[in-house]
Design brief:
368 residues; six-stranded antiparallel beta sheet; alpha/beta; 26% helix; binds alpha-D-galactopyranose; Immunoglobulin-like; eight-stranded parallel beta sheet; single chain
């Protein structure tokens, strides 16, 4: 492929965690973040693989201090960021923070242009493990050079810190960001609506060659359980992000989530697809009216995950020839429903599955 990539081992599989933005916007504070971290543990999410607790835009005070250092908003984080990160580490979790590469954040708060090394050093002192660097207020600047500067600044701290690049896919970051950061946004901001999930999904169809260990396409954080998404839509969103080898960064209120939501976010066989150590991103093999078929090849040879997405309002039966997913049509294959965690049976030549409106079935396929 000729595409360089990082291989520092910080994100061997796509990062998993939680970020404050999708549900809380700038209304964040120490209590929310700590309660969220505790909920991540008590809900079983930590044990399911979720690690990073990330505060997004809105954590900083409106001015830097006299030395030019970032100051956390004292009304939101009165004990500072270091104390918060310490608590999160004590829970067996990792801590992430947000800044912006330009002159101001997307919420017009102080950002990092010209302060990259100073801010990286400060983040490292605070115990930060993950930095999301946004792209507002960057008129005339080149993302490649500026994010490379960020990579150098983080490297110079000697603390292992994941770099999350967030320029929304404008300058085809999949072609250059793999040597610079661990993940990069591929699309504009997600919304908690079915149409937004589908629009973003469609933008991912050609991006599978660019992802792998330590360098992931990021179709944006999860909206599972947010807005007016139904449970089936949330499940479909989660399943497709897993097949895409996308980072799984929950964006809901973990403190109050229902059992149904918790079961989506921790579904063991879906998360196992997302975190498959082969790190190969899935691709779309069929786009036909309301039906999409997405396939991800797993590390164990002869094993695949298939996502059958029904975008529309009607139940449909879907037939998938083994040839369509690149399998030998004469092979005997075993089929398992990864949401239900139940074997479906054996088949040859084709797989037949039923789908309901606005949902995704996920099948695990193994050659005998
Ligand atoms: C941009 C990013 C979002 C979020 C907001 C915060 O829109 O894409 O993910 O970080 O900024 O202001």
């Amino acid at each position: 492929m000729g595409i360089g990539r990082l291989s520092d081992g910080l994100a061997p599989t796509p990062p998993m965690g939680w970020n404050s933005w999708n549900r809380f916007g700038v209304k964040i504070d120490e209590a929310l973040v700590l309660e969220t971290a505790e909920a991540m543990v008590s809900s079983g999410m930590r044990d399911a693989g979720y690690r990073y607790v990330v505060i997004d835009d809105g954590w900083m005070a409106p001015e830097r201090d006299r030395n030019g250092d970032f100051v956390p908003d004292p009304s939101k984080f009165p004990r500072g960021i270091r104390a918060l990160a310490d608590r999160i580490h004590e829970l067996g979790l990792k801590f992430g923070i947000y800044t912006d590469a330009g002159t101001k954040t997307c919420q017009d708060l102080p950002a990092s242009l010209g302060y990259e090394f100073r801010d990286a050093r400060r983040f490292a002192e605070w115990g930060v493990d993950y930095v999301k660097v946004d792209w507002c207020h960057t008129d005339g600047m080149g993302p490649r050079a500026l994010y490379a500067k960020w990579a150098m600044a983080l490297h110079a701290t000697r603390r292992p810190i994941v770099l999350s690049i967030c320029e929304w896919g404008r300058s085809r970051p999949w072609e250059w960001a793999g040597v610079i950061g661990h993940l990069w946004r591929t699309a504009w901001d997600i919304q908690p609506e079915w149409s937004s999930i589908l629009t973003i999904l469609d933008r991912q169809a050609e991006l599978h060659p660019f992802a792998g260990p330590d360098h992931w396409n990021d179709p944006d954080m999860l909206e599972v359980a947010n807005g007016d998404l139904t449970a089936d839509q949330s499940r479909a969103h989660f399943a497709l992000w897993s097949i895409l080898a996308a980072p799984l960064i929950a964006g809901n209120d973990l403190r109050t989530m229902t059992d149904e939501v918790r079961e989506i976010l921790t579904a063991p066989e879906i998360v196992a697809v997302a975190q498959d150590p082969g790190g190969r991103q899935g691709r779309r093999v069929r786009r036909d009216g309301d039906i999409d078929v997405w396939v991800r090849s797993l590390r164990t040879s002869g094993r695949w995950a298939i996502g059958v997405l029904n975008r529309g309002p009607d139940a449909r039966e879907v037939r998938i020839a083994l040839e369509e997913i690149g399998m030998d049509p004469r092979a005997d294959v075993r089929v398992r429903d990864l949401w239900q965690r139940a074997d479906v049976g054996k088949t040859r030549r084709e797989i037949v599955t039923a789908t309901t409106a606005n949902s995704a079935t996920v099948l695990g396929i193994s050659a005998e």
